[in-house]
């Protein structure tokens, strides 16, 4: 297991390097020059050149990328163009709000999606299954920002039940959490239904029915455990998607997370803030996927047995 973790961590290095370089290329070719924005439309050529030198944008993209990587390894993600504040402390201060929103959304999506998918699988081809499939198709087709706007109009503005924006009251987290969780709940429901249908056709389920065990025991003691194993990987990927999906949602509900920070950075062409926030989210996503892989190995006995056999083989060869 230790060797597996080391290999995965080493694999993340080229991924992070590639992501940071692609982001730098995209922000470099995107229309809009931060030098002209900061210098002003009536700035003279020598003033523009001075601003470009101060921002280190007078160098080639490869030199800037090399400097960014060297500084990032040391924990320095640069300084913003406008506020002259270090990027790393700003990201660390805002990330807890984004992480909390993403975590609550994923947990809510599991609570809604998993039982819905299992219920649909245990009532296959019935009207209950058809209604469940229709609901999941509708939810998975709606983007989170559209769901957020609908919830704001119907519940916050129309009924006035919860707060529309901010983070000071617990009710202000309800609509953002639901707006992100609905689409992910539909994905989990579809995955759970597919897994459950596959498991209940296995031979050991048929054997359990032949022994006279009740459907409740077969579903929740035998089938459910094996059907939920593939969901672990799906949930890990959804958490990474929730981190990205929460960025737009935070803007809609005026939450002081990474969403507002990155949208403002994109609007102002603040390259250090964009690069730093993207690299930080990429590292978090890689770490989450590593934890999911480790959890998957512990949950699935077949994968765990492979590591045990390898360990025994290594011990025998050493002996």
Description of the structure:
The two termini are 21 Å apart. The protein contains 13 helices and no strands. Helix 5 runs antiparallel to helix 6 and helix 12 crosses helix 13. It is an all-alpha fold and 319 residues long. The longest helix is centred in the last third of the chain and has 38 residues. The chain has 2 domains: 44 residues, no CATH class; 180 residues, Orthogonal Bundle (MetI-like fold), CATH 1.10.3720.
Provide a short characterization of the protein structure:
The protein is mainly alpha-helical and 319 residues long.
Outline the secondary-structure elements:
Blueprint: H1 2-29, H2 34-39, H3 45-54, H4 61-73, H5 87-122, H6 127-141, H7 144-159, H8 174-199, H9 203-210, H10 215-252, H11 258-268, H12 271-299, H13 301-318
Helix pairs in contact: 1-12, 5-6, 5-8, 5-10, 6-8, 7-8, 7-10, 8-10, 10-11, 10-12, 11-12, 12-13
């Amino acid at each position: 297991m230790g060797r597996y973790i080391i290999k995965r961590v080493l694999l993340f290095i080229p991924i992070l390097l590639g992501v940071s370089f692609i982001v730098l290329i995209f922000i470099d070719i995107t229309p809009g020059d931060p030098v002209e924005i900061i210098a002003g439309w009536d700035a003279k050529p020598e003033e523009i050149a001075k601003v470009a030198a101060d921002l280190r944008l007078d160098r080639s993209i490869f030199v800037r990328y090399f400097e960014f990587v060297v500084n990032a390894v040391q924990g320095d993600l640069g300084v913003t163009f406008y506020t002259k504040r270090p990027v790393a402390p700003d990201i660390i201060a805002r990330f807890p709000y984004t992480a909390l929103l993403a975590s609550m959304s994923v947990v809510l999506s599991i609570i809604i999606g998993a039982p819905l998918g299992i219920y649909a699988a245990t009532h296959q081809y019935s009207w209950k299954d058809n209604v469940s499939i229709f609901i999941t198709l509708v939810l998975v087709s709606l983007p989170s920002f559209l769901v957020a706007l609908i919830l704001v109009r119907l519940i916050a503005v129309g009924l006035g039940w919860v707060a529309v924006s901010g983070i000071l009251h617990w009710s202000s987290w309800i609509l953002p959490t639901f707006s992100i969780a609905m689409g992910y709940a539909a994905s989990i429901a579809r995955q759970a239904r597919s897994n459950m249908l596959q498991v209940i056709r296995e031979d050991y389920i048929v054997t359990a029915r032949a022994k006279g065990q009740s459907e409740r025991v077969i579903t929740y003691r035998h089938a459910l455990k094996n059907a939920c194993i593939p969901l672990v990987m799906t949930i890990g990927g959804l958490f990474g998607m929730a981190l990205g999906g929460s960025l737009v949602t935070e803007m809609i509900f005026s939450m002081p997370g990474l969403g507002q920070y990155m949208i403002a950075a994109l609007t102002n062409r603040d390259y250090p803030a964009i690069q730093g926030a993207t690299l930080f989210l990429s590292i978090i996503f890689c770490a989450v996927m590593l934890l999911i892989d480790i959890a998957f190995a512990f949950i699935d006995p077949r994968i765990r047995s492979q590591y045990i056999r390898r360990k025994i083989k290594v011990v025998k060869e050493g002996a």
